[in-house]
Amino acid sequence: MATVTLTADNFDDVAQSDGIVLVDFWAAWCGPCRRFAPVFEKAAEKHADIVFGKVDTEDQPELSERFGITSIPTLMAIRDGVIVYAEPGALPDAALENVIEQVRALDMEDVRRRLKA
Fold it and tell me: What are the entry keywords (predicted)?
């Protein structure tokens, strides 16, 4: 599956859907972002059941501000509408695959219980 461009207009609709959404906060001028882009694209092709979204921080500053993005690239993982991971830094293939495996393995009932506590 190709990546989806996320904007202030469609972010909530995509992020609140069931399943996993991975979001890459990036900018064209950012060297690490350009190095991470092919890793993210490759994972998008491999994991057709996951939505891979990209937020251009220059074009969508309100989303960067909303989520407190101060360093890019930042990878955010959302599962069933809950942000379960958000860390800056360009990940290599193996590290991104590890994040995906961990997000898949989450017990979302337990996550929601912990959020309520």
Answer: Disulfide bond, Electron transport, Redox-active center, Transport
The 10s digit of each residue's pLDDT in 20-50 is 999 999 999 999 999 999 999 999 999 999 9
Q: Which residue in 30, 51, 55, 91 is the catalytic one?
A: 30
Strand order in the sheet with 74-79: 4-5, 51-56, 20-26, 74-79, 82-88
Tell me: the pLDDT tens digits for 60-106?
A: 999 999 999 999 999 999 999 999 999 999 999 999 999 999 999 99
Whole-model pTM?
0.94
Strand partners, 86: 76
Handedness of CA 39, 43, 45, 50 (dihedral sign): negative
* Nearest Cα residue to 60 out of 5, 4, 2: 5
The answer to whether 79 is a known catalytic residue is: no
Residue 36: DSSP 8-state: H
Our answer to whether residue 8 is catalytic in this structure is no
Given the residues 20, 33, 76, 77, the one annotated as active site: 33
DSSP state of 85: E
